[in-house]
Amino acid sequence: MNTIRYEQAVEYISRIPKFTKKNEAGNTIELLRRLSHPEREFRVIHIAGTNGKGSVCAFLESIFRKAGYRTGLFTSPHLVRINERFQTDRTPVSDEDFLEAFLHVMRAVEEMMADGYAHPTYFEFLFAAGMWYFREQKIDILLCETGLGGRLDATNTIEKPILSVITSISLDHTEYLGDTVPEIAAEKAGIIKRGVPVVYDASDPGAAEVIRERAQQTGSEAIAWCPEMSVITDRTDRSVKFRITAPYFDDVNVCVPFAADYQAANASIAMIAAGTVSRMDDPLVKEHPVSLPDILAGIAETRWSGRMEEILKDVILDGAHNEDGIRQFLKTAERIAEKRPVSLLFSAVADKKWKEMIGRICRSVHFQSVTVTSVGGSRQIAAQELAGEFRRHAGCPVYAFEDVKSAFRQARRVQKDSVLLCCGSLYLAGAVEEEINNAEL
């Protein structure tokens, strides 16, 4: 095992879904126990939600790093490399450190299986490896994003976070989480721990009621963000400015370095979360107080790939892949289309409502051209099938390529003076980012 290479470790992890299934929380707890509970060695802010949880993690990481904390960031999925999932002070884990974490977890897994425990799932394995790595890095605070849901998620084995955060709730992964927003909210609210405050998005009344009830049951302070607390005052193709009047903030002007309105909501939730932490009776917080200038600078300097990101001039990349994500994406797309022609690069995976997505996109925005491609491995949809649906609705030239490289090059060739919008799947966002990183375009 000690002669294994980084590439072999990644390949082993990538094959885990082929020989395991979702486990009870006790399996994850046992794995953490055999690693001497690394997750207990630092403060944790635990973040769940349908959309926006990764962005809130990124905003908070930037804020706390600005305030002098050594930060850890645990997020999923990765866009290009698996190392993106573990970051210290915004730097992804090195191949060498990833391999070391893998080897330590693998030894614990082999011991567990010899004692009759199940092999951890793909996400459990990475979660354990991340916790081991963050302990070795001696981080101060971890911004920890749930994988799927919350109540049954491997990350929910963290016993005592200092704060829970729940971002916007909408219909997604209904086959696992429930068919209604309140049902999904109940799964997300499962991360709330007894006596631990929760900051939450209260824009959906049904979801907000479920979260408040859970907070009351656990004796946890519930701190809401409502849409009327944040008023957008200016927009450009690269940023949004807003004014926030909310808990801890009285008429404060904020600049978010993203073009999408929804990032004002995510930044607001992150600000309230940081404000909540800044008032805690905690020796680390007293040593590193989180000031308003830290918060504003942290927000302004946040970087988060694939979320309405201008990755090249006039090329905007967004990972929108569910109903609410597409709705938010279209708000920005419509605003851009009022001033500039727009073209589209699109893909989706089979377990999303992709026909409805395409219909809604085409009803909302007129495109100069559309290019489609196929992503997602076993969940992929043939590019020609996607193209057929666009040809029914789009009223513009539609091009289809099975591989992302050819599709992106074609989209750039026919882009002309338009803004190229790329959306429909995080797989697409990752593949486009990788292509840009690897090619001279």
Name some characteristics of this structure:
441 residues, alpha/beta, UDP-N-acetylmuramoyl-L-alanine:D-glutamate ligase, Protein-Tyrosine Phosphatase, Chain A, 2 domains, 16 helices, globular
CATH class of the largest domain: Alpha Beta
Strand order of the largest sheet: 4-3-2-5-1-6-7-8
- Briefly note the CATH topology name of the largest domain: UDP-N-acetylmuramoyl-L-alanine:D-glutamate ligase
What is the CATH superfamily label of the largest domain?
Mur-like, catalytic domain
| β-strand amount | 15-25%
Number of DSSP E strands: 17
List the helices and strands and how they pair.
Layout: H1 6-15, H2 25-34, E1 43-48, H3 53-66, E2 71-74, E3 86-88, E4 91-92, H4 95-114, H5 122-137, E5 141-145, E6 163-166, H6 174-177, H7 181-188, E7 198-201, H8 205-217, E8 222-225, E9 230-235, E10 240-246, E11 249-256, H9 262-278, H10 283-287, H11 292-300, E12 309-312, E13 315-317, H12 323-337, E14 342-346, H13 354-364, E15 370-372, H14 383-393, E16 398-400, H15 404-413, E17 419-423, H16 426-438
Parallel strand pairs: 1-5, 1-6, 2-5, 6-7, 7-8, 13-17, 14-15, 14-17, 15-16
Antiparallel strand pairs: 2-3, 3-4, 9-10, 10-11, 12-13
Helix pairs in contact: 3-9, 3-11, 4-5, 7-8, 12-13, 13-14
